[in-house]
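Colleagues,

For the teaching module next term, I've prepared a clean inverse folding example: a structure given as tokens, and then the sequence designed for it. I'd like students to try predicting residues themselves before seeing the answer, so please don't circulate the second half yet.
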């Protein structure tokens, strides 16, 4: 049996380019303090939410209208025993035309059910991807500060 990475996907009427731009506007859909560039290949940005989560993402792929990949270079998740669970994982956004719509497929490679933060982290990603980012794409307004536990 293989462990499944956390994945979420949805389809919308908006163009791949609009989805790509929304993903890279991280501050508009993900809660917390974000420092650094979030839209340049090779750039690093840090994310911090209260004293619960701190991470450094390196943008390793940036293909306009198609794909964005962040490599988690360093992370500290303070509500689990192994605070470095996210280290070395990848956050992947894949964009593809499907019929007359556009699909966004989100995968956090390495966020699997066997690790302690899977429940809370997958729940948070579920909100940020399926609600906040989707809202940013479809209405122009994300919901980055609604909830995170």
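(Answer key — instructors only)
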């Amino acid at each position: 049996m293989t462990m499944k990475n956390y994945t979420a996907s949805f389809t919308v009427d908006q163009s791949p380019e609009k989805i790509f731009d929304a993903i890279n506007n991280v501050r508009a859909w993900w809660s917390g303090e974000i420092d650094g560039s979030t839209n340049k290949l090779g750039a690093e940005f840090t994310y911090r939410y209260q004293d619960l989560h701190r991470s450094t993402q390196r943008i390793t792929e940036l293909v306009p209208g198609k794909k964005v990949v962040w490599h988690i270079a360093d992370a500290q998740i303070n509500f689990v025993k192994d605070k470095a669970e996210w280290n070395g994982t990848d956050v992947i956004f894949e964009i593809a035309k499907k019929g007359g719509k556009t699909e966004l497929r989100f995968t956090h490679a390495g966020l699997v059910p066997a690790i302690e933060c899977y429940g809370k982290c997958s729940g948070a990603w579920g909100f940020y991807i399926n609600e906040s980012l989707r809202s940013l794409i479809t209405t122009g307004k994300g919901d980055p500060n609604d909830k995170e536990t």
